[in-house]
Amino acid sequence: MLDKKYGIGIWGDSNFIIEDGEVCLNTDFKPSLLDIVKQLRKEDVRGPVLLRFPHLIKKQIVEIYSNFARAMRESEYSGNFSAVYPLKVNQYPGFVKNLVELGKPFNYGLEAGSKPELLLAMAYNNFGAPITVNGFKDKELINIGFIAAEMGHDITLTIEGLSELEAIIETAKERFTPKPNIGLRVRLHSTGSGIWQKSGGINSKFGLTSTELIEAINLLKEANLLDKFTMIHFHIGSQINEIHPLKKALTEAGNIYAELRKMGATNLKAINLGGGLAVEYSQVKDSMQRNYTLREYANDVVFLLKTIANSKDVVEPDIFIESGRYIAASHAVLVAPVLELFSQEYTETKLNFKATNPHIIDELYYLYQNIKSSNALEYLHDAIAHMDSILTLFDLGYADLTDRSNGEILVHLIIKKSIPLLGNKYNLTDILDIQNEVQERYLVNFSLFQSLPDFWGLKQHFPIMPLNRLDEIPTRSASIWDITCDSDGEIEFDPKTNPLFLHDIDASKEEYLLGFFLVGAYQEVLGMDHNLFVHPTEATVVLKDDGSFEIQNLLESQSVIDILDDMDYDIDEIQYILNQRIEKSDLVDEKQKKHILGELYLFLNDNGYLKSIG
Ligand SMILES: Cc1ncc(COP(=O)(O)O)c(C=O)c1O
């Protein structure tokens, strides 16, 4: 069962802390997320907002470099450690520009998988820091890679298939003296585990088989380019949840490295393990997703490669990693307001008893008035059964709409009253079953398709919690509904994996904000504009030494006009048609037309998220 702290001790990595009932950044001055949002509200920001925290990007970079430095020191490892950030994980400038700046002291580089990503890397990468290029390449992309080398970048083009190598050999003959380094992606037998494990294994989309590797070495020798072959690469999948498959893959890759060096590839110096370092997304102990720490990962990688290099009598390879999720996930939090609770209308004042009510309504009212902790479970079961009976009576014509409404209200009132009374008195499974049955639906101002696409596509869980009221026990088992017109836009209460409890609130009277955490990796770039809900407003929150925080790069979500423009609509035409239709309407007078035209202008230039309900 989710604890009162929403599992922050499991997924939070000490980045957040609860103080005075609010989620705060766990830094010296502990600013609360709610205060940050209030500051944004003063700048007229409404709707969902994505907060970026550069101090959390820095923390992840430092952790990776310091753990590998420590592991290498402890093992007296003679190779070097390098890392590149894979742009595919999040290419937004609000993230990338901060990352490049923060990575400068470490010579942290970038990985690209397409022409736009490579050009981005060539423009922004810290000079001298490595660039690696993975993915399928045409002659043009290879040319761009050569241009990067001609600019002076330390770039490695990783070959996914022999035809790419042939294209590189051809390009090398056509171009100038500087040349990129060449990496070979090896197709390993070993695979990862978990939902993102398809990148490894003998049937994977990428990499050279042993036969192709031998052929590649021969081709490189013939072209006099063997000295440019410096790296082998593999990637067994993202979010590797167990360390064991990585160790198997490393053993395989380490042996391939040694064999290739023995074949004369004496400039082969590095093994690139790709990405895959996992993030703990779970809010409950029973469904934790990762069985290792970064410390263990670094120790295992260094130890294994040292052992293989020593036993095969080859130089200890430089270690390269391309972890993206681990670097980016924690830096972003989506904050979205609850717009409505679906049972909000079920209040006592809405009851409308008649002089004579059906017996079952009287019975429900009795249950409501007399429920207490000793009978809560029994009364709750009775109430749910009575609701079924009322619906049957209604269908048969023995109860009218007023009776039905009274029944619905009373059952919901009994549910609300019973949940705190049940406490932990009963068998957990019983309670969770009941809570599953009586879950409240919270309508939240965000698009799941835009902001949590991996939940939609893969049911990947992301931590969710309210930003305040954390000193009060939440009483409602909750499912989250987004604002798209799509029934897939729902995060259901799940007694095992998502036992989410929220507070009973009146959304028309108080702002109740939910935080969706660990959304900084993949979610922004994979997000879909379903229903034309686009990337939400974003803000970068920079912490100052004096304890204050500063909001930088406030970027409002696109206006309706810009969204339609992006879809290649003719904006002038749309505005013209809308204006004409008002001008020609004989349903409103001239003064009203002027007013409506002004309103239309504002709506078209505002963002598309909801402001409030009702
Ligand atoms: C070749 C390569 N390197 C690195 C990564 C980044 O992986 P992760 O974000 O899991 O660290 C990926 C993503 O799947 C990849 O395909």
In short:
This protein is α/β, with parallel strands linked by helices and 614 residues long.
Primary descriptors:
15% strand; Helix Hairpins; metal ion binding; 10-stranded mixed beta sheet; binds pyridoxal-5'-phosphate; 3 domains; alpha/beta; 8-stranded parallel barrel; TIM Barrel; 614 residues; Lyase, Ornithine Decarboxylase, Chain A, domain 1
Flag low-confidence runs: none
Shape: globular
Average pLDDT score: 93
CATH class of the largest domain: Alpha Beta
Distance between the termini: 34 Å
The fold-level CATH name of the largest domain is TIM Barrel
Topology:
Blueprint: H1 8-11, E1 16-19, E2 22-25, H2 33-42, E3 49-52, H3 54-75, E4 81-86, H4 93-103, E5 109-112, H5 115-124, E6 130-133, H6 139-151, E7 154-159, H7 162-174, E8 181-185, H8 210-222, E9 229-233, H9 243-262, E10 270-272, H10 294-312, E11 318-321, H11 325-328, E12 332-341, H12 359-370, H13 376-396, H14 401-422, H15 428-437, E13 440-444, H16 448-451, H17 453-458, E14 464-466, E15 476-481, E16 490-491, E17 501-502, E18 513-516, H18 523-526, E19 537-543, E20 549-555, H19 560-566, H20 571-584, H21 590-605
Parallel strand pairs: 3-19, 4-5, 4-11, 5-6, 6-7, 7-8, 8-9, 9-10, 10-11, 13-15
Antiparallel strand pairs: 1-2, 3-12, 12-13, 12-18, 14-18, 15-16, 15-17, 19-20
Helix pairs in contact: 3-4, 3-10, 5-6, 6-7, 7-8, 9-10, 12-13, 12-14, 13-14, 20-21
Bound molecules: pyridoxal-5'-phosphate (PLP).
Pyridoxal-5'-phosphate (PLP) binds next to helix 11.
